[in-house]
Known about the structure:
It contains 10 helices and 2 strands; from the N terminus they run H-H-H-H-H-H-E-E-H-H-H-H. The protein has helices at 2-17, 32-60, 63-87, 91-106, 115-118, 128-134, 153-165, 174-191, 193-202, 206-222; strands at 142-145, 149-152. It has a two-stranded antiparallel sheet with strand order 1-2. Helix 1 (2-17) packs parallel to helix 9 (193-202), helix 2 crosses helix 8 and helix 3 (63-87) packs antiparallel against helix 4.
Amino acid sequence: MKNTSKTLLLASALLLGGCASSTATNQSDPLEGFNRAMFSFNDTVDRVALKPAATAYQDVLPSFVQTGVSNFFGNIGDVWTMVNNFLQGKGEAGLSDVMRVAVNSTFGFGGILDIASEAGIQKHKEDFGQTLGKWGVGSGPYVVLPMFGPSTLRDTAALPVDIYGDLWTYATPVDVRNVGAVVRVIDMRASALNATNLLEDVALDRYTFIRGAYLQRRESQVRDGADAKPTNEKAIGPQS
């Protein structure tokens, strides 16, 4: 169910994006030469390592185990989301996040079970890049980071803060933390397998698709989905 819903969401975005103009400007991407090189590097890493690992993960592990892994790390992420909601002045959303973490950490066996969602407590997703955007910091040019994928100058500056704001960064012992980080990445990649397979079949220029996706999505996230400015890009699809 988790993979199906994400695939349907991306498919809908692709269909909507396909109606956009194909004469996209690159004003938001002055570093396109560098970005395409990094995109190619990331794509190679994905094809050689991440995608095969994620495919094996999805094929071997039962779906309820995958859901538990996703819920566990999602619960950890809710803590940083809570902090950013408060930093953005969204007190009601921040209190909702507090309740989510409390419920899932206690009754959900450390977050393995998402009891909060079953109880109707909404899940949010906020990071420090969105917080900077709320504070009025412009996104700056589009950047593709090695391993991390699509970003902007603002989101790149916020990345170290997001890393240090992630509670898993402080997990001990180090071996457990490292293994958990790998599992987390593979689980995230597995959840997007169907969607990225669809993207590969549809997109003529995946770089342009993904650039448009990231810029539109980030604009929408910063504005909480309201009055998001179009980017004039052709279509949609995440590189992760």
